Amino acid sequence: MCGMLAQMDPLSQRGESGADPLLKPFVTWAGLYIAGSSGSLEKSEQASLADMVGSNYLKQALAGPRKLSHFRDELQRAINQRQQPLSALDINRIFVSLIAVARADGGIEKKEVEALHDLAKLFQVAPTYVDSLLKAPD
Fold it and tell me: Counting Cβ atoms within 10 Å, is residue 7 exposed (0-12), middle (13-18) or buried (19+)?
């Protein structure tokens, strides 16, 4: 259903990586936060994220500190700098991407679920929204 909604969204723009360039900072920093929440940035999770945002964009993000606090701070900065509020469709795209990153290493760890709930609060959505996405089929 998200795919159909994306086709109907006139603001949806696709870059060379297939990602909406307006959502890249959110997917990148939140994705790194999710991937790092288990204690390390797994190669499979980084590869999944690179497929979403582009490998060069991800390399630039990884050039800075590789700390959860840095990833979360950069995400908060991206949210604060956005002039228009994120739509429900934007938030859905972001969280579907984040869950794909978390699943990239074969499963979702408890710490990743906790990180997803933390980000739900940051994006001002209920943690139960995340739970519903986690229960949805891949």
Answer: exposed
Confidence of residue 35 (pLDDT cuts 50, 70, 90): very high
Which token pair is 14?
């696709």
Phi-psi region of 25 (alpha: psi -120 to 50; beta: other; left: phi over 0): alpha
Residue appearing with tokens 């739509």: 87
Three-state secondary structure call for residue 17: coil
CA 85/CA 62 separation, integer angstroms: 26
Number of Cβ within a 10 Å radius of residue 16: 8
Structure-block tokens of residue 94: 């972001």
What's the pTM? 0.85
CA-to-CA distance for 33 and 14, rounded, in angstroms? 23
